[in-house]
Automatic annotation (TrEMBL):
<keyword id="KW-0648">Protein biosynthesis</keyword>
<dbReference type="Pfam" id="PF00133">
    <property type="entry name" value="tRNA-synt_1"/>
</dbReference>
<keyword id="KW-0479">Metal-binding</keyword>
<dbReference type="InterPro" id="IPR029033">
    <property type="entry name" value="His_PPase_superfam"/>
</dbReference>
<dbReference type="GO" id="GO:0002161">
    <property type="term" value="F:aminoacyl-tRNA deacylase activity"/>
</dbReference>
<dbReference type="InterPro" id="IPR009008">
    <property type="entry name" value="Val/Leu/Ile-tRNA-synth_edit"/>
</dbReference>
<feature type="short sequence motif" description="'HIGH' region">
    <location>
        <begin position="51"/>
        <end position="61"/>
    </location>
</feature>
<keyword id="KW-0547">Nucleotide-binding</keyword>
<dbReference type="Pfam" id="PF08264">
    <property type="entry name" value="Anticodon_1"/>
</dbReference>
<dbReference type="InterPro" id="IPR001412">
    <property type="entry name" value="aa-tRNA-synth_I_CS"/>
</dbReference>
<dbReference type="GO" id="GO:0005524">
    <property type="term" value="F:ATP binding"/>
</dbReference>
<comment type="function">
    <text>Catalyzes the attachment of isoleucine to tRNA(Ile). As IleRS can inadvertently accommodate and process structurally similar amino acids such as valine, to avoid such errors it has two additional distinct tRNA(Ile)-dependent editing activities. One activity is designated as 'pretransfer' editing and involves the hydrolysis of activated Val-AMP. The other activity is designated 'posttransfer' editing and involves deacylation of mischarged Val-tRNA(Ile).</text>
</comment>
<feature type="binding site">
    <location>
        <position position="811"/>
    </location>
    <ligand>
        <name>ATP</name>
    </ligand>
</feature>
<keyword id="KW-0963">Cytoplasm</keyword>
<keyword id="KW-0862">Zinc</keyword>
<feature type="domain" description="Aminoacyl-tRNA synthetase class Ia">
    <location>
        <begin position="21"/>
        <end position="492"/>
    </location>
</feature>
<dbReference type="InterPro" id="IPR033709">
    <property type="entry name" value="Anticodon_Ile_ABEc"/>
</dbReference>
């Protein structure tokens, strides 16, 4: 194969080479072919968790994405069919927070003022802002994944499946509306689920207070109460003691204090114990509240306020053993309030500020972001001024913050929709035990412990941009209706009118096959067309058509007149409407239809691209949508016939059903026309929530406008909440397939009589450690609740990639290199292999090091490229030889060489061992164990096999050809082993070890043997030779150990390896009777003989005595090395013979005398001459 300078430059630049290979994959549809090729082992199910497209990919995405790429590639090569479909997470607080920043909105109230519809429109447009960059970067990183047929959690089809899940769980009694104390983000003004809360804990220092509650019956005596949340004190409704604990009444100065005996150390002063009493003694005592804001308030159960109650949950190992109860701000508090019928005092609004009743602090945020102690200090100051503070102290603790906006959370009692996870707990734990977790500890402890303590899941959010909770409530009687599908909703929205859609009869332009898109075109109905229309009109008799709406074209008006006459309709029942005119096809008006079709690559492009002066199909859908919704509002109880054209009719149905382009194309079918000349189709139309393009949009406020009547006569409206985005992402397995509404051949968890479940559960998933309480959890809960079993069999959990200094990677600090800059420098493969070889793939942390990426490139990829360069050099030279034809050296990948040289046998044994190690690692999803042996093998291949085989390969004859064939076979097989890890380099290595380059084939998706390494089968392990191979590998390891010791002995004696020595004695007898291995030692150490001698004292004994003959031979070898360097400097290839000119000094020494033939052969020389004016000792010409 001829290599150009451009080729060499490309191969020296990994980024350029990778981009060329990426283009090859795209041009030849290699990914598509890998999906289309035979899959004898069946389906391997993989779920890909959806990322947000609101930012660019970072190292966390790249790491998880690489893991997700490796296993499907491996399984595909093993003979499985592995669909890989990309998805996008589109909803929730992450998106809302970004939009709020862009629009300078600070609160929920600001959003409502701005306008919900406007806000969600911005969110919808902005959620995919970086999608284009993702679609460039993810494939560039070497990932095979379908990003064209992606799923999006904001799509109506996805939401419909989420609705189905909600209704199904509701029918099982697993959904309920409850009022509980939960964590609330005051900035976002919504509650968070328990696993969302777990993601946002931060260490902060708060101020706690020991407050004095005076006993009504004993003025001057105080219950001493400790709290870390002084802001909750204005909402105090009761105090609680442990009825079984002992309490002390102590005197300090003029005051007395009541405190748990076990907490007496909390007192900071000398005290006198007055008496010891059980906790139950204080139950029923009245006390004076610290604040009088709610004294006399007209709240239910106020008669039970400001009393002491007994409660077993009161701990006496911290604080004072007396707890202040604020029913609206704590789970224990709320539960006690329900039990004892305490008043529900909620002195803080959902936005986290004190209500107006709290006069001294009204409007203040209770836990300000940036200074969470500020308001607590003001509360304490107020109490101190009234002598109601015993003392304060700082407390360092872990406090929950909003996982998206970093605002301190509040424990706040409010309503939410819940999934009864507590009822599923035992099943969840049991299913988790069946899952293979890598690392195991994550599933067993981190995830397992979380499951065992699982609480009911709050799945609703009081927000805006999210899938709407599908519950409608009657404003009159309170009856709730749960909707589980679009059809379910349609049934409650009865149609106002009946519609028929008809296309005009055959016209002149149809016969001529030309575009006629202007109303002034004189294209009339043909005789056949007239007959078609009359026949169609007859079929409409008896349908009760009262109104005809027609397009203003000659052919449609003629059609309308014929129909109206047959149906005997009056003139005033026929109305011309410009909106249902033919599509505007601009410059194609009057031209042949095929010319218009050729303007587009595919049907999808017609929705996005318009000819000059024309409109897109999206434009047609919009005007047809405006038409049908307007007509439906203007008429009621009518039967209406719409006479239009093919494309408008198609888009009328698309708009009426809220179809997105892909759905509309599928709905249209493969026929030449959507509706034939004079064909009549019934249009079932019910107004649906749509966006401005009349595509189904189930978001607020569109969905909120869908109301219907209740049996009681009241109006039923949707509740305002939206789903927790984790409920949506957890629905991914079924919602991405629009289950149970379509795609049942691809996804159906329910087995049939002769059918296994399809697409469920996943054989493999992978995400980061943070997803143990996110996607892994939500998916498991929904999978078990809906389908009765875990949704995945195996999970690979990666850890966190940190900055090199151990800190969290930060854009602000710029403490890490840009990922794509690293790819441009070192190539995607180097980055991939670096990550895959590290402990981060098994849940541990990794300090990212750019220098370590470079090291991987140099030690693995560059070293292997040097081996390949050597192979190609001699493969090309040998291919020119008349004695070496294709029969003597078959395609190196086609068969295993059968040779006798120990090195050839050893490297094949190591290859077999490598295949085994990598296969085992991948089968167990232990990617580091699979990736690391590759580097070791490349080291063995380069520094031992090739170095020891160079001279053999250079030499003529069978031995050299055998070594070259072995090297080619090993490289070709290695390319397959490396394919899942380093897909670009593996492709390069594979193609460079083929006898002929494959031609590009863009015409179809047929699998072409040898076209790509990613279409190859995974290498098989030769089990028959396993024992033999292990023995040889062990022996070679011993050889290398001895060589290492002997070379150390040489170094200590300060004798270069090029200087021959007489003999080496070896103590070990492990290599006895293995002369070929001893020969390797002899050559490696450069000695004349190797002897086994168990009597020597050390492991080896090296004879370092130099005879004149040995010295001369050493000088000769040094001369040959110099000549070889000169050849390299001149860029000479092995087959190019040169003339050596020696200096008079060298000639005088007689150094070369007697060895000229050997030197000629070794250094590829034609002849040797002696010169006078030679610079240095030697020159080549």
């Amino acid at each position: 194969m001829t290599q150009t300078k451009e080729d060499n430059n490309q191969k020296n630049n990994p980024a350029e080479r990778e981009e060329a290979i990426f283009k090859f994959w795209q041009d030849n549809k290699i990914f598509e072919k890998s999906l289309a090729k035979p899959a004898p082992k069946g389906e391997f199910v993989f779920y890909d968790g959806p990322p947000f497209a609101t930012g660019l990919p970072h190292y966390g995405h790249i790491l998880a994405g690489t893991i997700k790429d490796v296993i499907p590639r491996f399984k595909t090569m093993q003979g499985y069919h592995v669909p890989r479909r990309w998805g996008w997470d589109c909803h929730g607080l992450p998106v809302e927070n970004l939009v709020e920043k862009e629009l300078s909105l600070r609160s929920k109230k600001d959003i409502e003022t701005y306008g919900l519809e406007r806000f969600n429109a911005v969110a919808k447009k902005g959620v995919m802002r970086f999608a284009d960059e993702w679609q460039k970067q993810i494939p560039r990183l070497g990932r095979f994944v379908d990003m064209e047929n992606d799923y999006r959690t904001m799509d109506a089809s996805y939401t419909e499946s989420v609705w189905w899940a909600f209704k199904t769980l509701h029918a099982k009694g697993l959904i309920y509306k409850g009022f509980k104390s939960m964590h609330l983000c005051p900035r976002c003004e919504t509650t968070l689920s328990n696993f969302e809360v777990s993601q946002g804990y931060k260490d902060i220092t708060d101020i706690s207070v020991y407050a004095k509650f005076e006993v009504v019956s004993e003025p001057g005596t105080f219950f001493l109460v400790w709290t870390t949340t002084p802001w909750t004190l204005p909402g105090n409704a009761a105090l609680a003691v442990n009825p079984d604990a002992k309490y002390l009444k102590v005197k300090i100065g003029q005051s007395s204090y009541i405190i748990a005996e076990s907490r007496i150390a909390a007192l900071a002063e000398r005290y006198e114990v007055i008496e010891t009493l059980p906790g139950r003694r204080f139950v029923g005592e009245s006390y004076k509240p610290l604040f009088d804001y709610y004294l006399g308030a007209k709240l239910p159960d106020m008669e039970n306020a400001f009393l002491v109650y007994g409660a077993k949950f009161v701990a006496t190992d911290e604080g004072t053993g007396i707890v202040h109860i604020a029913p609206a701000f704590g789970e224990d508090d709320y539960n006690l309030a329900k039990e004892k019928k305490l008043p529900f005092i909620q002195h803080v609004a959902p936005n986290g500020v004190f209500k107006k009743e709290v006069r001294d602090f009204a409007g203040l945020p209770v836990k300000p972001k940036g200074n969470p102690r500020e308001t607590d200090q003001k509360i304490i100051e107020n109490l101190s001024n009234r002598l109601l503070v015993y003392r304060t102290e700082k407390i360092a603790h872990s406090y929950p913050h909003c996982w998206r906006c970093d605002t301190p959370l509040l424990n706040y009692a409010t309503s939410s929709w819940f999934v009864r996870v507590t009822e599923l707990k035992n099943k969840l734990v049991a299913e988790n035990e069946k899952i293979k977790w890598v690392p195991e500890a994550v599933g067993k402890y981190r995830f397992g412990n979380w499951l065992s303590e699982a609480r009911d899941w709050a799945i609703s959010r009081s927000r805006f941009w999210g899938a709407p909770i599908p519950v409608w409530r009657c404003e009159k009687c309170g009856e709730e209706t749960v909707i589980g599908s679009i059809d379910d909703l349609k049934k409650r929205l009865p149609p106002r009118n009946r519609y028929f859609v008809m296309r005009h009869g055959e016209a002149d332009n149809n016969v001529m096959n030309i575009i006629s898109s202007e109303s002034g075109n004189p294209h009339h109905l043909t005789e056949r067309g007239v007959a078609q229309v009359k026949k169609a009109a007859q079929s409409l008799i008896g349908q009760g058509v009262e109104v005809i709406l027609t397009s203003p074209f000659v052919r449609t008006e003629e059609t309308t007149k014929l129909v109206a006459d047959i149906l005997k309709l009056p003139e005033n029942s026929v109305i011309t409407d410009q909106r249902i005119r033919e599509g505007k096809f601009g410059v194609f008006n009057g031209r042949l239809v095929p010319e218009y079709h050729a303007f587009f690559k595919n049907n999808l492009e017609r929705f996005e691209k318009a000819p000059t002066g024309g409109e897109t199909y999206a434009d047609i859908q919009k005007r047809m949508g405006e038409f049908i919704y307007d007509i439906d509002r203007r008429y009621y109880g009518k039967t209406i016939l719409i006479i239009t054209h093919d494309s408008p009719a198609w888009q009328l149905f698309s708009a009426a059903n809220g179809m997105v382009p892909k759905e509309a194309i599928y709905f249209r079918g493969e026929d030449e026309f959507f509706i034939k000349n004079a064909e009549v189709k019934k249009l079932n139309f019910t107004p649906l929530p749509n966006d401005e393009g009349f595509r189904l949009d189930l978001h607020r406020p569109h969905i909120d406008r869908m109301t219907f009547s209740c049996q009681c006569g009241g109006e039923t409206k949707r509740v305002s909440e939206v789903f927790d985005c984790w409920f949506e992402s957890g629905s991914m397995p079924f919602a991405s397939n629009h289950y149970p509404f379509e795609n049942l051949n691809a996804f159906n968890p329910k087995p049939g009589l002769f059918r296994r479940p399809r697409g469920y559960p996943a054989d493999f998933i992978a995400e980061g450690l943070d997803q143990t309480r996110g996607w892994f959890y939500s998916m498991l809960v929904l999978g078990v609740a809906l389908f009765g079993r875990a949704p995945y069999r195996s999970v690979a959990v990666n850890g966190t990639v940190l900055a090199e200094n151990g800190e969290k990677m930060s854009k602000r600090l710029q403490n890490y290199p840009d990922p794509m800059a690293v790819v441009e420098k070192y190539g995607a493969d180097a980055l991939r292999l670096y990550l895959l070889s590290s402990p981060v793939v098994r849940g541990e942390e990794l300090r990212f090091s750019e220098s370590a990426v470079l090291e991987v490139k140099r030690k693995v990829l560059d070293r292997l490229e040097n081996v390949l360069a050597f192979y190609k050099l001699y493969e090309v030279e040998n291919s020119k030889s008349e004695t070496l034809n294709s029969k003597q050296i078959p395609n190196p990948k086609s068969q295993i060489p059968n040779q006798n040289h120990v090195l050839d046998n050893w490297i094949q044994a190591r290859l077999n061992q490598l295949v085994g190690e990598v296969t085992t690692g991948l089968e167990n999803y232990e990617l580091d164990k699979a990736a690391r042996p590759i580097a070791d093998f490349v080291d063995d291949l380069s520094t031992w096999y090739l170095r020891r085989s160079r001279e053999r390969i250079k030499a003529d004859g069978e031995a050299g050809r055998a070594a070259l064939q072995t090297l080619g076979f090993v490289l070709a097989e290695l390319s397959k082993v490396m394919a899942p890890f380093t897909p670009f380099f593996a492709e390069y290595l594979y193609k460079e070890t083929q006898n002929a380059k494959c031609k590009n084939q863009n015409d179809d998706l047929k699998f072409k043997n040898g076209e790509s390494v990613h279409l190859e089968k995974w290498p098989k392990i030769n089990e028959k030779l396993k024992a033999q191979n292990e023995k040889l590998i062990g022996e070679t390891k011993e050889v290398r150990r001895i060589v290492s010791i002997a070379l150390e002995a040489r170094a200590k004696a300060n004798i270069k390896v090029r200087q021959p020595l007489q003999k080496l004695k070896i103590k070990s007898e492990k290599l006895k009777a293995r002369q070929e291995l001893l020969e390797l030692i002899k050559d490696e150490i450069n000695v004349k003989e190797v002897l086994l001698d168990g009597k020597i004292q050390n492991e080896v004994e090296l004879d370092i005595a130099l005879t004149p003959e040995l010295k001369r031979e050493g000088e000769l070898r040094e001369a040959i090395r110099t000549i070889q360097e000169l050849r390299k400097e001149k860029g000479l290839k092995p087959a190019e013979l040169a003339t050596l000119v020696t200096s008079s000094k060298i000639a005088a020494t007689g150094l070369l005398q007697g060895f000229e033939s050997e030197i000629k052969k070794t250094a590829s020389l034609a002849r040797i001459e002696h010169g006078v004016s030679v610079t240095g000792d030697f020159e080549l010409k």
